[in-house]
Amino acid sequence: MKSRILLLVIMSWVSMHGFAQQEEEMVFSEKTFDFGTIKEEDGAAVHQFSFINKGLQPIKISSVKASCGCTTPDWTKEEVKPGETGFIQARYDTHNRPGSFNKSLTVMLEGQPAPVRLYIRGNVTPLRESMEEDLPTSMGKLRVKYRSFNMGKVLTSEEPTTKKFDVYNSGSEPIVFEKEYVAPEFIKLKFNPQVLLPKESGEIEIIYEGKTNNNLGFNSDNVTFYTDEDGDDATKSISVYATVMEYFPPLSQEDLAEAPRLKISSPVHDFGKIKQGEKVTTSFQLYNSGKTELKIREAKSNCSCAEASVKKDNLKPGESTEVKITFNSNGRRGNQQKSVTIFSNDPTASAQRVTVKAYVEAEGEFK
């Protein structure tokens, strides 16, 4: 037993002594290298770790193994004599590897049991797509990302919401945007530049006046603009999406304490299994838990198959009413989930949702 313990102690001492000797003999300029931010399109990133043999015996590298197949090592193959220098090279392949990386190289020396480890790290910015790939939708020679331009959330404030969308001229002739366009009164267009040169990028700026529209909830509007291209290519039709929300000016804590509050009891109802073509109805209770009058602006469904109606629009503090929802399963089958958004003048939660669910059985499905 004592001889076994003694053997372990000796082996541990030899290992530690060998590692310390190895560290003392093989001196690197650095053991970690940070490439920083590099571009994928620039190709492989290469760094060479240099070392000097400060020992009394030659050093020979037997192997270098990378922690990942993305890193290819190279090294000095011949012996490095005392006082001479050698290298270990790390080549990191950036292709299809966007994002940060942290890799290691394990260096083994002949006659030394303990390895030396070197590290590389950095961040790869992804390869930029060509304009044709980035803007895949063609409208004549004009390219856009989508024919639908999404404005996101738009408030009914005095200030309109503005958003810019990239366009690209893929043709060999300039594209001139005409000043005239067809759009609802609350949507304005600007073209920058007005004349888009071949292979040049530009922007279509959409100015959306939520206060003028004042149609709360999701909106989809058609807009047509014109260019000087020939034939049908001169007319461009797009859809402009926006979710219009009521604007509330900043309120003090005192004002919020006096504000109306909309509460909805059990905002989800499951009709269970129903037959195809069947109409089913349920209602949800709406309650004003605030201290001033609650005004129900609108109850808007996300599907024509679910009709919503509110019994009473104005609720005094403590009053309640109901929103009735009728789901028409005609032409539908399987799991269904539809929602109705209740818009009110509750400044803390002006848009709240109720949901109805059902499983629509096709004719003869469960006989």
TrEMBL record:
Source organism (scientific name):
Fulvivirga sediminis
Name of the protein described by the UniProt record: DUF1573 domain-containing protein
Q: Where is the signal peptide?
A: 1-20
Q: Which Pfam families match?
A: DUF1573
Q: Which UniProt keywords apply?
A: Signal
